[in-house]
Task: structure prediction
Amino acid sequence: MFILVIIPMWAVFLVTLALVLIAAEIGYRAGIWLQRRDASTGKTPIAGAMVGGLLGIVRYAAVILSFLLVGVANSADGKRDPIAIFLFALAFSVVLMVLIDLDRPQEGQLNVSQTAMSDLLRTMK
Result:
């Protein structure tokens, strides 16, 4: 039997809640630790990169978990369609590539002009 079928729903909820709260606390303490490292400003330029990096890791983890669920669903049915799985994986890979490419506006395959952002910045000053 699958482990989540055996465990009562309220226990799954409590464990999930505890894990999320622990993760939030770890992130908070890591942010405080990073800010203490630069005494002159109280902040660090690594913090923005850390958030972006964590979002990238979460994105890839979500993809991996999605495909684990696809594998579990295929094993439950006893039917496996390798062409559909390949196309699904290809679509996920393309979407991830586009997301990562859009995050880098001046490099990569998609080059986005920054004139609109520069004009907006000038009007805000």
Observations:
- The two ends are 62 Å apart (CA to CA).
